[in-house]
Design a protein that fits this description.
The protein has 14 helices and eleven strands. The chain is α/β, with parallel strands linked by helices. The chain folds into two domains: 187 residues, Glycogen Phosphorylase B (Rossmann fold, 3-Layer(aba) Sandwich); 125 residues, 3-Layer(aba) Sandwich (Rossmann fold), CATH 3.40.50. Helix 8 crosses helix 12.
């Protein structure tokens, strides 16, 4: 098959689904498919709306002689794809990995509504949320949708009026285990983007409170490369991801493959999926975060979680993911 991967970011850009798209491209090519990536490129310089329309034209031109399109991004790609999908007459799939409307609302207002509650409080939305929501609902009605978890699929099904026949779940990759090394200190690793949704300030406050009781714990922060992150996880004590919500965070997968327990927000698909490997906390409660830090410091809890992780043997490759996408495309 001749397949287009439509994405706003791609290596050497980092973040989001950049690594995912690159890895999927390699696996699809390994299976014998011809794959091309269509980026926004210079179109990013245009204002919102204009760049979406121009990208739709760019995609339409690129896809006319192709067999399928897979899009990545909940708004910047889905909306242009929704505009052109009826005219392509080929399978068009959109992978949803985040929630643009929720992210933008929280970033603008710092209202900090957890994702499972967001669509119950539309009275707190502003006009920009309503525009993005309605545009996305219009687009998704014309596409086949892939989620990374049942959790987000169930959250979106009603507000976006999604048809069950056009929804699939393709879970994220789980690489092979890396050899963990004993931690030399009790460092909690809060690596990643320093944005309000990551709940960094509340976690810092909770951590400083916890340090009054557990004097030997340390907090490591910053934005680092994936290679450096894996090395730090292998040698560190525990990962921390106290986000207001985080759907299927790769950070937790990376913590598991490095053999290290974690602290994770309860508003995540992985809070249930990997509950036996970490401590789950309410990100809206500083007291509960302090409680979670204390549990991870407790030797018996840490040892139990580490043993559970050591027994986890599941591996899911990008080759597996590529095969699932191809099966989905051929079923259209």
């Amino acid at each position: 098959m001749k397949i287009i991967l439509a994405t706003g970011i791609y290596p050497p850009e980092i973040g989001g689904h950049s690594f995912y798209v690159e890895s999927l491209k390699k696996s699809l090519e390994k299976l014998g498919h011809e794959v091309s990536v269509v980026l926004y490129g210079n179109l990013k310089k245009f204002p919102t709306g204009v760049r979406h329309f121009l990208y739709a034209i760019k995609l339409w031109r690129a896809a006319r002689d192709k067999d399928a399109v897979i899009g990545f991004d909940a708004f910047s790609i889905a909306v242009p794809l929704g505009l052109i999908a009826p005219f392509l007459h080929i399978p068009v799939v959109e992978r949803i990995g985040g929630d643009f409307t929720w992210e933008q609302h929280n970033a603008r207002t710092e209202d900090f509504i957890p994702l499972p509650q967001f669509y119950r409080y539309t009275d707190r939305w502003r006009w920009k949320e309503w525009i993005s929501f309605r545009l996305l609902r219009f687009a998704l009605a014309r596409l086949d949708i892939v989620f990374s978890s049942d959790w987000q699929r169930d959250l979106w099904r009603t507000p976006y009026r999604l048809e069950p026949a056009h929804i699939s779940v393709i879970e994220n990759a789980i690489p092979e285990r890396l050899l963990p090394l004993p931690p030399e200190r009790k460092n909690f690793m809060l690596y990643g983007r320093q944005i309000p949704l990551k709940n960094v300030e509340r976690f810092r406050n909770a951590f400083h409170r916890a340090q009054k009781r557990y004097w030997d714990i340390e907090l490591d922060e910053g934005a680092i490369s994936r290679e450096e992150l894996l090395q730090k996880l292998r040698t560190g004590y525990a990962a921390a991801l106290p986000s207001i919500s985080d759907i299927t965070p790769n950070y937790i997968i990376e913590s598991i493959i490095c053999g290290k327990p974690f602290l994770l927000t309860k508003y995540s698909a992985y809070a249930e999926r990997f509950a036996d490997f970490g401590v789950i906390v309410d990100p809206m409660s500083e007291d509960d975060i302090v409680r979670g830090i204390g549990e991870l410091v407790e030797p018996s809890t840490y040892e139990r979680l580490s043993k559970n992780i050591a027994l986890f043997t599941e591996v899911r490759t990008y080759d597996d993911i590529a095969k699932e996408f191809i099966a989905l495309l051929r079923a259209q």
